[in-house]
Design a protein that fits this description.
The protein is of the alpha+beta class. It contains eleven helices and eight strands.
């Protein structure tokens, strides 16, 4: 079908763009920074935002040093909660016998982190996803929302603990940030719809989250491109990061991604919009 050929062409453009991105000089530094800069829990995100609302990239003193940055003298640390883990050796009478000591959470302690703006050093690599701005095409939000609700999920707007959107398979809810422009909100909704259609919530436990995120964002890219909105500034670095810089991971999901996107596009009645050359 012509429409499938068009989606295949757009997906190939996604793969090529990721190949170009990861061949750039900044990519190694970006991956190193991404691996070292921790992802914080929702509670710690709230603590960070309360103390330093404009924080963007946050890490501990030693982590910044390892990345080639130096926290400036006199800068005040951001207090967050870190788990206290202790090793527990089973008693001799335990059924575990010679089992290794297990790690148990004993509580939390306050540690201090710093934002990149509190450090001296080179700019962080500029290959982070950039939030989309402006309006969404037509009734795209409503068309995507209908499919999410048709799958038995409820849509919410509000904070998502530092993410742009979240899908909960336990509560069957999809939540999208309420402080982004309509274009970004629609793109995020398309991403979460892909999770609803392709995944079941076990990807975290089975170590398949990277593939799931590649699939969801690739589907969103195809849908939004068809609707006339270019999302490359967000989708390319997002997919590249979750694919760990390997375009073959994106290629391997192509059939599944294109089939899902085609189903959403057909159900929404979207007609392809040609982008200017």
């Amino acid at each position: 079908m012509a429409n499938n050929d068009k989606l295949t062409e757009v997906h190939e453009r996604l793969t090529e763009a990721i190949g170009d991105l990861v061949s750039g000089a900044d990519w190694t530094r970006f991956l190193e920074a991404s691996r070292r800069l921790r992802t914080y829990s929702p509670n710690n995100v709230l603590l960070i935002m309360t103390q330093r609302p404009m924080a963007t990239a946050v890490a501990g003193y030693r982590t910044w040093q390892a990345l080639g940055y130096q926290v400036r003298r006199g800068e005040k640390g951001i207090g967050i909660l870190a788990p206290v883990i202790r090793r527990h050796q089973p008693d001799e009478g335990d059924d575990q016998g010679e089992a290794e000591a297990v790690r148990k959470l004993r509580g939390f302690r306050v540690v201090h982190v710093f934002d990149v703006e509190q450090c001296d050093g080179p700019p962080l690599p500029d290959v982070q996803p950039v939030l989309l701005t402006g309006d969404a095409p037509g009734a795209l939000w409503d068309l995507l929302a209908d499919q999410i609700e048709g799958a038995g999920f409820t849509i919410q707007r509000g904070q998502c603990g530092g993410a742009n959107g979240r899908t909960s398979f336990d509560s069957r809810t999809v939540r999208v940030r309420d402080d982004v422009d309509p274009a970004q909100a629609a793109k995020t909704l398309a991403h979460e719809l892909a999770h609803v259609l392709l995944h079941d919530g076990t990807e975290y436990a089975t170590g398949c989250r990277g593939r799931a995120e590649v699939e969801a964002e690739s589907v969103a890219y195809l849908i939004l491109t068809t609707a006339g909105l270019e999302t490359g500034a967000y989708s390319f670095p997002y997919v590249a990061a979750w694919a760990d810089g390997n375009p073959e991971v994106v290629t391997a999901t192509a059939e599944r991604v294109i089939r899902c996107a085609r189903g959403v596009i057909d159900a929404a009645g979207l007609e392809p919009v040609e982008h200017a050359a």
